[in-house]
């Protein structure tokens, strides 16, 4: 978020260039490079804070491998816990193995992406485990809604 009345969107124009002889142009180089290396961006307007610039760069993740997943059995005693990276990836693989594709989000095709989504704080995750750390279920939920431009 930054306060400004005038925000020059020139650097987001695909034809914009930077000249080493122009110091004002060089000051825009970071934003120019950033605008070229992201998949998409948005500008948020907040009356009190000013403008917000959100740049999104998607990472490439391997899809689910055809790895054998353990059978899910009813848990006699369980506790709910924050999953570590391996437990979260296993939970995602279990969900993909036991539910039709249309019943879980596209991100679940990429366990590493779900791990990053949770690590970023955008999503929260919990798993139900027994004394042997066998996963019997879990959930992944959006932790906060994104703001949209008004």
Structure notes:
With 150 residues, the chain is of the alpha+beta class. It folds into 2 domains: 9-56, no CATH class; 79-142, no CATH class. The chain contains 4 helices and 5 strands; from the N terminus they run ααβββααββ. The strands form 2 sheets. Strands 3-4-5 form a 3-stranded antiparallel beta sheet, covered by helices on one side. A two-stranded antiparallel ribbon has the order 1-2. The mean pLDDT is 81.
Helices and strands in order:
Layout: H1 23-27, H2 29-36, E1 40-46, E2 50-56, E3 79-81, H3 85-98, H4 111-119, E4 123-129, E5 135-142
Antiparallel strand pairs: 1-2, 3-4, 4-5
Helix pairs in contact: 3-4
Would you count the extended β strands for me?
5
Rg, Å, rounded: 22 Å
* SS-based class: alpha+beta
The secondary-structure element order is: HHEEEHHEE
The share of residues in extended strands comes to 15-25%
Tell me the major beta sheet: 3 strands, antiparallel
Query: Counting H and I runs of at least 4 residues, what is the number of helices?
Result: 4
Q: What's the N-to-C terminus distance?
A: 15 Å
How many discrete structural domains? 2
Q: Indicate the overall shape.
A: elongated
Low-confidence stretches: none
Q: How much helical structure, as a percent, in the residues?
A: 10-25%
Average pLDDT, rounded to a whole number, is: 81
How are the strands ordered across the major sheet? Answer: 3-4-5
